[in-house]
């Protein structure tokens, strides 16, 4: 079977080229696949697009002429290849399915790719990436926040809500710096704050780097420790409830969109709501510690003083046990208020 120049369906009916007649039926595809001869089938539209079948390889694919500047995307896929080919002194981009058992399932994808090239007028590379992105989104598992991140976000939102109550939405959201990739979770007027949350029976927290407990220049650094446990029905709060509480407090402010962006950066997605049902309450009263000499910590200065070459240790994550460690005798009033905030008020 050579080029299907008259674009006729089996049985002799000519194809009109309209949207409903652009692509061969699955029955027609089956007839071509059962043949041992190579096939090139034109898809009506501009630019010229061909559906090809190469039984010897075997491959089922789509072919479209491209300019000399076009490069073939590196898909890094097991069953789909993308390449450049020359035919009759013309340059083509070919997208080929190389696993025969997937030909029938992949055929609609190739039809969609042709539509994006000819009807939406995307360039072939963009059309291919758009098609693959859509398939990936369709087949991907729903995002599920990890339990560790859920617990950490509960602690951060307790702190943000307390800040909203004391300083208002703008000051609170602008102070929430950790979600922007900065070293400390909160940057307040007079001090920086790290918020740590644990469900352990002892007050133990993970420290994520050698610099997380290093003060920024001369600014005091404090650590606010929340210790949580699961609560019974009707008690405590879930992560979605804390999100709703904060959303209600900031929704009429000028920083509502910034809050939504911060939540997203922190790992929250609205479609997770139905799967996050654990209720939390405080296992014990929260505690505030000033990070000064004597606080348990690993820092670059500590390791360098011990003769350790920091270049040899690119990543460090360690755990501190603050059980029985004495709180600061005096703390800023704002920090005391945040420590004592009960949530959902």
Describe the structure.
The protein has helices spanning 26-33, 103-118, 124-139, 147-167, 169-175, 239-250, 256-265, 300-305, 333-340, and strands at 39-43, 49-54, 59-65, 80-87, 90-97, 186-187, 192-198, 204-207, 221-230, 280-290, 318-321. By secondary structure, it is α+β, with helices and mostly antiparallel strands. The chain has two domains: 19-139, Yope Regulator, Chain: A; 147-340, no CATH class. The strands form three sheets. Strands 1-2-3-5-4 form a five-stranded antiparallel sheet, with helices on one face. It has a four-stranded mixed sheet with strand order 6-7-9-10. α4 packs parallel to α6 (239-250). Residues 1-20 have low confidence and may be disordered.
Keywords:
21% strand, 11 strands, elongated, 5-stranded antiparallel beta sheet, Yope Regulator, Chain: A, 4-stranded mixed beta sheet, alpha+beta, 345 residues
Q: What is this structure, in a nutshell?
A:
The chain is of the alpha+beta class. The chain contains 9 helices and 11 strands.
N→C terminal distance = 74 Å
> Into how many domains do the coordinates divide?
2
Note poorly predicted spans: 1-20
Note the main sheet. 5 strands, antiparallel
Whole-number radius of gyration?
30 Å
Mean pLDDT across every amino acid position: 88
- The ordered string of helix (H) and strand (E) elements is HEEEEEHHHHEEEEHHEHEH
Topology, number of strands = 11
Q: Could you outline the blueprint of secondary structure elements for this entry?
A:
Blueprint: H1 26-33, E1 39-43, E2 49-54, E3 59-65, E4 80-87, E5 90-97, H2 103-118, H3 124-139, H4 147-167, H5 169-175, E6 186-187, E7 192-198, E8 204-207, E9 221-230, H6 239-250, H7 256-265, E10 280-290, H8 300-305, E11 318-321, H9 333-340
Parallel strand pairs: 7-9
Antiparallel strand pairs: 1-2, 2-3, 3-5, 4-5, 6-7, 8-11, 9-10
